């Protein structure tokens, strides 16, 4: 597919205007998703009186299916609906689910509705990024990082608005605000559709034979599947953010700033995203300077470093929680803030890098499906995170965080080992990209 013609290419960091549309669309979709997520565990344990172990399992299962449905949604978008129809149908379905969350009897159907809509929306939106750039355009290298900033701006403001409404006026107000955010996402997408890549008619796609997967393409897919399997382990640790970390913010953290004001517990969920969109430009500038000096860190080594950093952050939190419990006090809120900063810096080395890797190495005609495989790793990862979350109550909190740090450390070790073993695949891919840039 040829990239869409852009009369002006100066919207965000020198990228095509279509990236701004995708950026803003995903920003408001993430506002709705993270706004609901910031409330979910508290809603189950405080309003629905669900026990902590069960709440963690439900949270993990819901988050898992949010990543499971894109596998089939990506296939449906690639083969039948097309990406634009998939985004519109998926977004409308998600908005309905968010508004359903305002009714307690519809709690479980609402979760299922959001997960189903997300299956069409998520892979179909992200897979349009590559179509914005001509072959060999160097700007495509940083496009996914810019896109990831949009994801995290929405995730930053969501707990501040939805969380504040939920805590102050009732959980249902927070869920309704999340639904409004999803509607805003759809309005932006429709309004800016002229800047997005044109789609091949689905009738043409049916008549034209699909390019077969040759040996090289199969090798790339096998490489990506191996990475996805390790990311499952990493997400078992990372996805505690909205689960047990949220519980610790409520139970184990002294959130008082002044005698009369405490930080709302949902606000801490914004810190991850705040660090992402403030640190990403600095990180991209550093990588660019290193690349100009001929220093290009392999993708998997970056991801391994990120997982190791996340593991170290949990070990730090384990020490803080253990000391606090031993002295019978709550940890100062600054420790939780410091944890979010360190953990998120590690996240930046693995999640956006992995998303970009899957987008760039996807065989032609299977880009949405390949992106969906990346998100599919989140399915098993969130199931693992939910299962690990059941250890929160029986284990001392310090030891729980040490266990989670060990899980992230295992992922780092496996990523580094895969990078050493499969380095030739990555070198061939880099050589191919370099050849395209020299044309």
Order of helices and strands: HHHHHHHHHEEEHHEHHHHH
The CATH homologous superfamily corresponds to MFS general substrate transporter like domains
How much helix, percentage-wise, in residues?
Answer: over 70%
CATH topology: Growth Hormone, Chain: A
Tell me about the largest β-sheet: 2 strands, parallel
CATH class: Mainly Alpha
Identify the strand order in the major beta sheet: 1-4
Number of domains: 1
Radius of gyration (CA) equals 21 Å
Count, helices: 16
Total number of β-strand segments? 4
Mean pLDDT rating: 82
- Oligomeric assembly: single chain
**How would you sum up the global shape?**
globular
In short:
This protein has 439 residues and is mainly α. The protein has 16 helices and four strands.
Describe it for me?
- The chain is an all-alpha fold and 439 residues long.
- It has a single domain, classed as MFS general substrate transporter like domains (Growth Hormone, Chain: A, Up-down Bundle).
- Helices cover 75% and strands 2% of the residues.
- It has helices at 17-47, 52-81, 83-100, 107-126, 140-169, 171-191, 202-207, 215-238, 244-251, 271-292, 299-326, 333-348, 351-361, 367-389, 397-421, 423-437, and strands at residues 253-254, 256-258, 261-262, 331-332.
- It has a two-stranded parallel ribbon with strand order 1-4. A two-stranded antiparallel ribbon has the order 2-3.
- β2 (256-258) and β3 (261-262) form a beta hairpin.
- The longest helix has 31 residues, at 17-47.
- The chain is globular.
- The relative contact order is 0.15.
- Mean pLDDT is 82; it is low at 1-9, 203-208 and 433-439.
